[in-house]
Amino acid sequence: MAAQKTGFRVSVRELVAFTFPPVDIVPASQVEDMLAGGKAHRLRQDGHEGRTEMSIRHVFHLAGEDVELFGRMDAFTEDCPPLIEEMKLSSWRGDDAAPEHQAQAWLYGAMVALEHGAHEVRLAVTYLSPEGEVLRRHEECVAGEKLIAQAEAWLSAYLAFLVRERQHRERRDQSLRELGFPFPEYRQGQRELAVQVYTAVRQKRRLFASLPTGTGKSAAVLFPALKALGEGETEKILYLTCRNTARQSPLQALERMKQQGLHARISVLTAKEKLCPGECRCHPDWCDRAKGHYLRAEEAIRELLENPALLWTDEVIADISDKYRICPFELALALTELADVVLMDLNYVFDPFAQVKRLYQRKRGVTLLVDEAHHVQDRVQESLSGTLNSGQLRISRTALGKALSRKHPCYKALTELIHLLRAFELPQENEDGRLEHPSAEVTAAAQRLLEEVGGLLNHPQGVPAAELLPLLRTLLPFLYAAEHFSDDYAVLLSAQGKERTLDLYCLLPAAQIAATTKGMRGVVFFSATLSPLDAMKELLGGGEEDACFSLPSPFPRENLQVVRQRVNTRYAARRDSAPRVAEIIAQTAMQREGKYIAFFPSYAYLQMVQELLPADRLPPMWVQRRDIGEEERDSFFAAFLRGDGPRLGLCVMGGLFSEGIDLPGDSLIGAMIVGVGLPTPSPKLRAMQQCYAERFGDGFAYACRIPAMQKVQQAGGRIIRSGEDKGILVLIDERYFEPAYVSLLPEHWRQFSPDVERAAKELWG
Ligand code: SF4
Fold it and tell me: Whose Cα sits closest to atom 1 in ligand 1?
């Protein structure tokens, strides 16, 4: 739905969804829809005599408003009377056509009657198998007048909703015209950033921005995007983050703007697992909130809309869901449609299986603000890759075997897939197990299994969803990767005894990121460590027309003293270098009483050095363990944020404590970074390196050095969080003396102090 001064535009799909809401939440079934929907349509349309995918529109005049209805008919035959055909996959099990499918045909029928002057129209709803075979067909011939009267009745009911939404937008835009920057003055660089963001939205471009800590990026990015919203340059703002905790800062900025008169709807979308008060078994038979959810949700939404001061946070959504006994996740999803600004995980846009389709279908009206954008590549790579492991599949088969007989087609399909995988021979010609193409046989077997699993999800036959969902989560990404396989992927086979793992690994997701963001009303990728910008632009699918922008650190340069120490920390030299590393860490932590963290490239190296540290002369140590739990995490914050005494933390780089945490003031006065953060060599990494060498020239830089130095920047960036913070950063590795590495350090780190004592003296006298 798009607001227009002259009236409203409504798609047939949207009107039908409004008029025929479902009653219950049912499992994410219709697996066929996810992979085979388009294929079935195409196969059926190929054999059709009339026109396919024919667009049609008509402007209705209702209650003094112009409402343009539009859509695309699956098939249309100009005859007397004309024939409209709607094609659907076979998931509908009733004897007649499903009411919402029939309504779709009726709406097209009404438009054909009006636009073509037809007195009668033949309407067919055809149900297809995934292969495009006709399973059932329901045909009727309806008088044009009857179709038009029905279409007007449905549109009139929807019009009340459209008018309410328009009133909201008018009030919102008025408040945005009056809204000033939410802080008394702009910080250094914020105004320039705001101009860049505003221009990106107006020109529908992508902007890649490197914004160091302290630039107040959340407010400076949100404010111009909101201004553009008020001017009709965009319709919705999605603020994406990688972690829930990263939403605090934009939420605070928005809350502040609300207090200053902003009248906009702001919602948060959090993962289903976090919002669900039960066990996430989304079926009306198991979850009383799923049963009749849509009947009660409307009232809950109305109550929220009546209180415009509220931000629709997790807590607000949980409270109102408890009150109406509805599903909080489904409610949060519905609110994303009504909201002007949505804060959510980047997977909801970039992961093809988590994508919020209802938002994505309207992407031409959407502006994306992508925070922590240095993580986008990894996350998208992960969601576009798929893995089959015969050992894991055997575990699923054992669980299924308890509920199904061995003769059940699903059990057989699973067995077939396991056998095919186990029959794989490792290629002799390369030690990384790299294959040329995905195996067509394995893909076909996985597809057959998916169809069986989909069938069982719709009609469980005593198989709990918990046994089927892991299979689904394995098969869908694998088949997606197989379907989209290109030079941007690698096929990697590995063996453990008899078991085989087949990876379809996405090496470079740039094309996918570009396609996902194409046509949006401005996309801003920003982060404190999105550097070097040119390389990040290439890796994130940017083009010539897209802009780059970076700001210097706003803090006094002398507040951070950086020292380099020439030590060989490469894997083979770690036992030899550990004493020297321990010495440097101890020396730094003894310069001034306070809190320090040393970051290591691995747990093993951390332990090696820990044993050599003179514990009796150092502050009490806090050591990060593998598989750290909630309790230990809290103990870290208790020690560094709330505790008074000095501390020495030993942590792993790239882990929980080297990124995304705020340790202001005396919570951290020094960090020692051991190594340059290079990733562990693996077949996947070598395949990436090779791919990047072909695309960008320097495969090692793009696949290894750049991401490594982003980790270093993140870890070092914990020290200075405000204009008053002071601290020392010690970079321990001989590669910090090489230009290729130095050039990737932030500019304000590159004036090195000669040694630790001198640096400490500069800082603290
Ligand atoms: S409340 Fe939980 S189990 Fe019920 S439908 Fe929602 S997410 Fe599923």
Answer: 327
Cα–Cα distances in Å, from 356 out to 229, 346, 360, 361, 501?
21, 11, 6, 9, 30
Smallest CA-to-CA distance from 384 within 242, 542, 497, 507 is with 507
Spatial distance between the Cα atoms of 209 and 217, rounded to a whole number of angstroms: 10
CA-to-CA distance for 326 and 73, rounded, in angstroms?
A: 35
Which residues have C-beta within 8 Å of that of residue 505, sequence separation ≥ 6?
Answer: 381, 385, 481, 489, 490, 491, 492, 684, 687
Q: State if residue 327 touches ligand 1 by the CB under 6 angstroms criterion.
A: yes
Residue nearest to atom 8 of ligand 1 (CA): 282
For ligand 1, say whether the CB of 282 is within 6 Å of any of its atoms. yes
Closest of 103, 86, 116 to residue 154, by C-alpha: 103
Would you say the CB of residue 290 lies under 6 angstroms from ligand 1? yes
Does pTM surpass 0.85? Answer: yes
Percent of the chain with pLDDT over 90: 74
Ligand 1 centroid to residue 27 C-alpha, Å: 10
CA of 387 to the centre of ligand 1 (A): 28
The 3-state secondary structure of 164-213, one letter per residue:
HHHHHHHHHHHHHHHCCCCCCCCCCCHHHHHHHHHHHHHCCCEEEEECCC
Measured from the CB, is residue 276 less than 6 Å from ligand 1? yes
In the structure, how many helices (H) and strands (E) does the chain have? 28, 25
Does the C-beta of 27 come closer than 6 Å to ligand 1?
no
- Checking if the pLDDT of 278 tops 80, the result is yes
pLDDT digits (tens, 9 = 90+) for 366-388: 999 999 999 999 999 999 999 99
Report the distance separating Cα 164 and Cα 168, nearest Å. 6
